[in-house]
Design brief:
The complex is a heterodimer.
Chain A: H1 10-19, H2 21-43, H3 48-64, H4 66-79, E1 82-87, H5 90-103, E2 108-111, H6 115-119, H7 122-128, E3 132-135, H8 138-146, H9 162-172, H10 185-202, E4 205-208, E5 212-214, E6 219-224, H11 228-234, E7 238-244, E8 248-249, H12 252-267, E9 274-279, E10 292-298, H13 302-307, H14 321-324, H15 327-332, H16 343-354, H17 356-359, H18 361-364, H19 371-375, H20 382-395, H21 401-414, H22 417-435, E11 440-441, H23 448-451, E12 456-457, H24 464-471
Helix pairs in contact in A: 2-12, 3-12, 9-10, 16-20
Chain B: H1 3-6, E1 15-18, H2 22-27, H3 29-41, E2 45-47, H4 57-61, H5 65-79, E3 84-87, H6 90-103, H7 107-118, E4 120-122, H8 123-130, E5 139-146, H9 150-156, H10 160-166, E6 170-175, H11 190-193, H12 195-210, E7 216-219, H13 222-234, E8 240-243, H14 244-248
Parallel strand pairs in B: 1-2, 1-3, 3-4, 5-6, 5-7, 7-8
The chains are: A alpha/beta, B alpha/beta.
The structure holds iron/sulfur cluster.
Organism (chain B): Afifella marina DSM 2698
Pfam family, one (chain B): CCG
Domain Cysteine-rich (chain B): 16-96, 144-228
């Protein structure tokens, strides 16, 4: 049994991440770079907000007829010679990949960047089955060498710095001259290219994800900046597309609208460097293309989300803008979340895919500042959806007892104004003498979470309401 | 003050219910008095219902919908007869104006929540947008910077109103804060549930504040202010923190937040 990366030690991970100097330096680039680039692109397109509404409407429409569009996609893809496999669970999807690989006797598979592959833990599973997966996206390649999960959905190695990449390359590329000069980042890039070129040619199967599936044509669409995805799907004899069911949209026209908001929100580009449409397998007379094409459609909890209060999450087009603008992500990076999907989108998606009991910290670790929602190209109300997870957590009694009890006592009082007045009067009377001299506390019993890092202003001697009553 | 609003007779003056918020009630009563002064000067009469407690945010954001709804019903019943409800806090105002309507499935309470929502405002937005206040009669000698508390900014579009009003205070110099729209790390119970993360976020905020020219930090939410003031003081940074209402009302002569008398 293979499973995706999942850690429940969110709080410990976060503390470690905050103390990790190299990570903190890398996160500084996210905080500045991505935000500025997106802002510039948005400022240059006055109709950007109108486009966001349109993008949202396309996804909402598709989601309310998802079964029809999936069937239409399946029909068209089959007509074009692709085989379509339905996978209800992560295990089903892994098995589908494995049985194709086994049937064609595959030893190596090249892979374009695919978050679904991460979600189902495909690499570890293939390795166990003695099939060698090779990531061809530079970022994915780097984290594969390091044995790490991605820390960002569009920039999987954003936590890694140049020196670390050099060290990894020297460690793994032992067939090369140990004295070679890798000081220039470009030399790292060419070394990766050269290494990967041989792999592309040796691979029996190429696996890619899909940014979109097009119902009217049966095509899958990927966007990349490196072109590695194209080689992955064209060179090997067999091409497998791994996609989750909410990736389908009705028409090519819809894809073009979504592409306009996707690239701008993700990297501030007008369009990614490569946008590749592939439809079915190689036809007689085609110069290249795979002899076999498979599309694996993964559900893995999504049908359930479609029917409940989390449906809006399925609009997500995986641009990464929400994490790029998230103060929590800026502070701790992606790995601390302990799940394939990170940042605000991960905080909503991960509990749906991997179980709330395994991911309960994620929707709680948010200040609800709302910056994610304000930049999301498909207007997903991420804070509201995180709150819905907290509601389920509360209903299912998953919250720690101390928090639950504290909340109960407070709510009990807040609902009884007379008692509340009395209790606060007593509280103020007790606290005021201690805080009066300095106007604040530097430590307070039961408030260590606050006073561990900052002073606590002293409360008033008499509450506002009591003072007001005394005056009037 | 805008002249058309000062000419109301008492009978025709809008009746405003002040929702003071639990933090102002317990930690900083002068914000309540400053708010009253500002609302009255804008041409309204103000009442402070004494059975108010809290808006219910702690329950709502902790996933406890039933307590949140019970508290919301209480607030609705207390405040629904006023012409307006004004709140010196963006997040508590947003709780009432944006979230109360989402709390109820039954049409009867949903309708009452909607009605209250439509007349509930954050203080500076009420003064500027509803009452048309364009300048205040106040003086403040100091260089002030403003932090946009998240809920007010993103849920209620409170951005220009406090800045415009602050700029009319005599003697006040205004400095824009770098990343003013980025969260301060308070987040209600977040700051005690995830203290290290909250600390990392507020540390960036206090660095931006200390790096500005300002000697005074103002904001419209007491929770965020207590967080930032507490951090500034822990770090020994000499910037005073005050609620925007105190400065606008000319009532900024008492000790700043967390400072001794
Ligand atoms: S939730 Fe929105 S902002 Fe975040 S990745 Fe998805 S589409 Fe992008």
């Amino acid at each position: 049994m293979s499973a995706p990366f999942l850690s429940q030690a969110f709080k410990e991970n976060a503390v470690d991440a905050l103390a990790n100097v190299e990570l903190q330096r890398a996160l500084g680039h996210v905080e500045r770079g991505f935000i500025q680039k997106r802002q510039k692109a948005v400022d240059a397109l006055p109709e950007f907000d109108a486009l966001r509404h349109e993008a949202r409407a396309i996804k909402d429409h598709t989601l309310s007829h998802l079964d029809l569009y999936l069937e239409a996609f399946e029909g068209k893809a089959r007509q074009a010679g692709a085989e379509v496999h339905w996978a209800e669970t992560a295990a089903d999807a892994r098995e589908a990949v494995l049985s194709i690989c086994r049937r064609v006797g595959a030893k190596t598979v090249t892979k374009g960047k695919s978050m679904i592959s991460e979600e189902i833990g495909l690499n570890a599973f293939l390795e166990k089955s003695e099939i060698k997966p090779i990531e061809t996206d530079l970022g994915e390649y780097i984290i594969q060498l390091r044995g790490e999960p991605p820390s960002h959905i569009i920039a999987p190695a954003v936590h890694v710095n140049r020196d670390q990449v050099e060290a990894d390359f020297r460690r793994v590329h032992t067939h090369l001259d140990p004295k070679r000069d890798l000081a220039d980042p470009v030399s790292l890039l060419s070394e990766a290219r050269a290494t990967l070129r041989d792999m592309f040619l040796a691979a029996d199967v190429g696996i890619t994800g899909a940014n979109f599936l097009v119902a009217e044509t049966g095509s899958s669409v990927i966007v990349t900046n490196e072109g590695n995805g194209d080689l992955t799907q064209i060179l090997p004899r067999v091409h497998i597309v791994l996609a989750s069911i909410e990736k389908v949209v009705p028409t090519l026209e819809d894809v073009s609208t979504l592409l306009r908001v996707l690239a701008r929100s993700a990297t501030g580009q007008e369009l990614s460097v490569y946008t590749t449409f592939s439809t079915g397998r190689r036809r007689p007379g085609d110069e290249d293309g795979p002899e076999e094409t498979h599309v694996i459609l993964l559900d893995n909890g999504r049908s359930e989300m479609l029917a409940n209060e989390f449906r809006e999450m399925l609009r997500c087009i995986r641009c990464g803008a929400c994490m790029n603008h998230c103060p929590i992500y800026h502070a701790i990076g992606g790995h601390a979340y302990g799940a394939t999907y990170v940042g605000p989108m991960g905080a909503v998606l991960a509990p749906g895919l991997f179980g709330l009991e395994n991911t309960a910290n994620l929707p709680n670790a948010s200040t609800f500042c709302g910056r994610c929602e304000s930049v999301c190209p498909v207007e997903i109300p991420l804070p509201k959806l995180m709150r819905h997870w907290r509601e389920r957590e509360y209903e299912r009694h998953l919250k720690p007892a101390a928090e639950r009890n504290g909340l109960r006592i407070w709510a009990f009082l807040a609902r009884r104004p007379k008692l509340y007045r009395l209790a606060t009067r007593i509280g103020l009377k007790a606290l005021h003498p201690f805080g009066r001299r300095r106007g604040r506390f530097s430590s307070l019993p039961l408030a260590g979470g606050w006073t561990g890092h900052r002073d606590m202003p002293a409360p008033a001697k008499t509450s506002f309401i009591d003072q007001w009553k005394a005056r009037s | 003050m805008s002249p058309e609003n000062t000419e109301h007779t008492t009978a025709s003056k809008p009746r405003v219910g002040l929702f003071a918020t639990c933090l102002v009630d317990l930690f900083r009563p002068q914000v309540g008095f400053a708010a009253i002064k500002l609302i009255e000067a804008s041409g309204c009469c103000v009442e402070v219902p004494e059975n108010q407690t809290c808006c219910g945010q702690p329950a709502y954001n902790s996933g406890d919908r039933s307590d949140a709804a019970a508290i919301a019903k209480q607030v609705i019943a207390i405040f629904e007869d006023y012409d307006y409800v004004v709140v010196p806090s963006g997040s508590c105002a947003a709780m009432i104006a944006r979230h109360y309507p989402e709390l109820f499935d039954d049409a009867y309470w949903a309708r009452r929540a909607m009605a209250l929502s439509a007349k509930t405002y954050e203080l500076t937005a009420f003064l500027y947008d509803v009452m048309g206040v364009r300048d205040v009669e106040a003086a403040f000698a100091g260089n002030v910077t403003y932090h946009d508390a998240c809920s007010g900014l993103r849920e209620l579009n409170v951005r220009d109103q406090p800045r415009e009003l602050l700029k009319t205070v005599d003697g006040l110099a205004f400095t824009e804060l770098k990343d003013a729209d980025v969260c301060c790390g308070f987040g209600g119970t977040f700051c005690v549930k995830y203290p290290e993360i909250s600390n990392a976020i507020v540390t960036k905020k206090t660095a931006a504040i200390a790096g500005s020219e300002a000697d005074t930090l103002v904001a419209g939410d007491l929770g965020c202010l207590m967080n930032m003031a507490g951090k500034l003081q822990r770090e020994g940074k000499h910037v005073h923190a005050r609620h925007v209402a105190e400065v606008l009302a000319g009532m900024a002569d008492s000790p700043a937040i967390g400072e001794a008398e």
